[in-house]
Amino acid sequence: MTRFTRRSAMGAIGAAATLPVLARPALAQDKLTVGALRFTSHAASFVAFERGYFAQEGLEVEFRFFEAAQPMAIAIASGDADYAVSAISGGLISLAEKGAARVIGGALSEEKGIDGQKILASNAAYDAGLVSPATLDGKSFGITQAGSSFHYMGARIAATEGADITFKPLQKVGAVIGALKSGQIDAWSVVPHIAKPLAAAGAARIIGNVADYLPDYQVTTVFTSARNAENERAKTESFLRAFARGADDFNAALVDKSAGDDAAEDMVRLIHKYVYTDRDYDKARPAIVNGAMRINKDGALNMGSVEDQLGWFRSEGLIKDTITTETLVDPSYVDII
Prior knowledge:
A six-stranded mixed beta sheet has the order 1-3-2-4-12-5. The protein has a three-stranded antiparallel beta sheet with strand order 10-7-11. The protein is of the alpha/beta class. The protein starts with a strand and ends in a 9-residue tail after the last helix. It folds into two domains: 3-110 and 218-328, D-Maltodextrin-Binding Protein, domain 2 (3-Layer(aba) Sandwich), CATH 3.40.190.10; 118-212, Periplasmic binding protein-like II (D-Maltodextrin-Binding Protein, domain 2, 3-Layer(aba) Sandwich). The protein has helices at 11-14, 43-50, 53-56, 69-78, 90-97, 123-127, 149-161, 173-182, 192-200, 226-231, 233-255, 261-272, 281-290, 303-315, 325-328; strands at residues 3-5, 30-36, 59-65, 83-86, 101-106, 108-109, 118-122, 140-143, 166-169, 187-190, 204-209, 221-225, 294-295. Residues 1-27 have low confidence and may be disordered.
């Protein structure tokens, strides 16, 4: 896994911050590792790092990058990462049930009026008649692992359409992309910064929107170890404050577009340090802009969506019937929406 770290505080940028003076001094810094995917949807952490918000909270952050949600949850439980942002997965829920992990906030959300996650068909499947989700019956659907967000989305879409589909676990996002391009799977659903470039390059076809099937879907959450949630409250609150400031900047620049064109350009360049780093900026820029979905203000959590996800996991036998939102979420950190 790739690591990226910065030790300087960037205090000059922080002087312009509009938030009140924070209680934690930025002198004796707490070192912590933040788990992330190289997705635009993880931008709040990247912004908080690059603009010194973590440093101002007395946090010395190192990123650890993953290629799927479940390995990230395992890293949180084992102490290899301190905080992370990713979708609710069966692995995360099971670790919470064992007392090893807790959700402490919300991140990416589907929101009406904002172009969100897409449902894709391979070119071969599209040419054979998979031109909308209504024609998914009998098709294959790519996922990383059983119990992943891709599994949840695919199952909910199929259930709405009355379709019988076959799920193919491929472990990593990159492997799913390769399988879709080559026609080894028929369909997939994913965030727009991946879906739209695939379609624009002629590598797949967009056949629908996830929001039509899962309105207000809480796509990702912020989570940590139970030990951090219970015993490291000051550090955890500092992390969440910095993360929320990063989310505010991201939303203003690329979602609400209220910060102006220069701020939007600066934001895309910042994100490009972490997302599509193998592409020239001019090629990466449209894909990053296309990934601009809402990151919840102040880490608020859509508990209705979380409850729906847990209900699906229980119905599939992927988690115990006794697991509830109280098992997964530490409500003392969370604003409910």
